């Protein structure tokens, strides 16, 4: 077996197993790392695609020095350990110490902003990639936005995600934390905070019904585009077709009434506890005929605009494909931009769209309509 250059840290969770599946399909050896060798072995054994595929298991303490020692000599770490703002800064520090590219799966906006401002320059100085949210959220919005921005004079992006997948336990804790912390949209190149606990009615491209939507952390796209000369305004909303979604909205309204006055630490203890109550077991693998997604961008400039609609399926599996394709491109020397970058910018939006389409995650090519 060739020496693995990829580490999946925290690989025993739901998304980690999906990424390992896609790496196996690409023939890329990897190291599944985490705090418990036994847990990693148990979970990796549940991935049938790993049969006969070369990979290693590494048990490591969750602290900077031990992680840097494990990461040394590798090419890229993809991190799954969240909630990220609570747990994962030492992983980023270890990547910087070891000279390794960093990617992760989170959509936590405060985490993304912190990485940009605190670690982005250092990664850029070393010629390394720092790419949080290398995942379905917040990359398919970037991919659709980049298609829209191919039209001259576009400067405003209104992005909507819609999906029907169940959420994993880790994702549930993370999104509750995200939705109860400051959420932002971009207005005239400045980040503006969304109000807490407020939902918005939206029209979804493949439905006649109106759905309630949330800022859902505000989205990564306002951060990716904040300092992009092409874009002045960017907002993101997220809706779900699940019958549970109105209950989530009610939960956030109740949180504002009962917990907003508490300290940050106390509020996060509350969201972690609620997340554990809402989701106690791992969902099964998504099915394309059931778990369908739409990403829609309404984009305009001073005198016109375009609408871009991307119909797809299986958001978690898309995350795995975006992660695996990003790592494949890093290993192949196909990184286009380094430092703090969205995956869609680091590897090229059209390249990732093609990879997702070839794998069957996009059921149609992007639909573009002039406004």
Descriptive key words:
371 residues; alpha/beta; Rossmann fold; Dihydrodipicolinate Reductase, domain 2; 2 domains; seven-stranded mixed sheet
Apparent shape: globular
Q: How much beta, percentage-wise?
A: 15-25%
Mean pLDDT: 93
Number of strands: 16
Give the helix proportion (percent range): 25-40%
Figure out the total of helices. Answer: 14
Give the neighbour order of strands across the main sheet: 3-2-1-4-5-6-15
Q: What letter string, H or E per element, gives the SSE order?
A: EHEHEHEHHEHEHEHEEEEHEHHEEHEHHE
What do we call the CATH topology of the largest domain? Dihydrodipicolinate Reductase, domain 2
Q: Supply the CATH superfamily name of the largest domain.
A: Dihydrodipicolinate Reductase, domain 2
Structural class: alpha/beta
- Taken together, the total number of domains comes to 2
Spatial extent as radius of gyration: 19 Å
Roughly how many Å apart are the termini? 54 Å
Poorly predicted sequence stretches spanning 5 or more consecutive residues = none
Largest sheet: 7 strands, parallel
Fold and architecture overview:
α6 links the parallel β5 and β6. The chain has 371 residues and is an alpha/beta fold. It has a seven-stranded parallel β-sheet, sandwiched between helices. The protein has a seven-stranded mixed β-sheet with strand order 10-11-12-7-13-14-16, with helices on one face. It has a two-stranded antiparallel sheet with strand order 8-9. It has two domains: 170 residues, Rossmann fold (3-Layer(aba) Sandwich), CATH 3.40.50.720; 182 residues, Dihydrodipicolinate Reductase, domain 2, CATH 3.30.360.
């Amino acid at each position: 077996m060739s020496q693995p250059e990829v580490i999946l840290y925290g690989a025993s969770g739901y998304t980690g197993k999906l990424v390992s599946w896609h790496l196996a399909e690409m023939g890329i050896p990897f190291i599944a790392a985490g705090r418990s060798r036994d847990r990693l072995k148990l979970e990796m054994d549940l991935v049938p695609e790993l049969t006969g595929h070369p990979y290693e298991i590494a048990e490591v303490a969750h602290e900077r020095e031990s992680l840097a020692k494990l990461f040394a000599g590798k090419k890229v770490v993809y991190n799954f350990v969240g909630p990220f703002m609570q747990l994962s800064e030492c992983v980023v520090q270890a990547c910087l110490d070891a000279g390794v590219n960093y990617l992760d799966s989170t959509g936590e906006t405060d985490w993304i902003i912190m990485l940009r401002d605190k670690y982005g320059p250092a990664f850029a100085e070393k010629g390394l990639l720092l790419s949080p949210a290398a995942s379905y959220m917040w990359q398919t919005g970037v991919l659709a936005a980049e298609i829209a921005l191919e039209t001259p004079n576009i400067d405003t992006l209104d992005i909507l995600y819609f999906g029907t997948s169940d959420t994993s336990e880790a994702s549930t804790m993370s999104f509750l934390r995200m939705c109860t912390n400051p959420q932002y949209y971009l207005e005239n190149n400045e980040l503006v905070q969304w109000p807490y606990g407020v939902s918005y009615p939206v029209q979804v491209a493949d439905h006649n019904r109106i759905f309630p939507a949330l800022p859902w952390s505000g989205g990564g796209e306002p951060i990716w585009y904040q300092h992009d000369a092409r874009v002045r305004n960017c907002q993101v909303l997220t809706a779900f077709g699940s019958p549970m979604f109105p209950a989530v909205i009610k939960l956030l309204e109740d949180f504002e009434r009962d917990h907003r006055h508490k300290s940050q630490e106390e509020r996060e203890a509350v969201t972690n506890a609620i997340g554990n109550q809402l989701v106690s077991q791992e969902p099964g693998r998504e099915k394309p005929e059931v778990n369908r997604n739409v990403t829609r961008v309404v984009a305009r400039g001073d005198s016109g605009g375009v609408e871009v609609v991307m119909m797809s399926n299986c958001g978690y599996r898309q995350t795995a494909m975006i992660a695996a394709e990003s790592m494949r491109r890093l290993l192949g020397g196909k990184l286009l931009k380094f430092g703090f970058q969205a995956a869609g910018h680091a590897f090229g939006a059209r390249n990732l769209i093609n990879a997702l389409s070839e794998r069957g995650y996009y059921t149609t090519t992007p639909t573009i309509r002039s406004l």
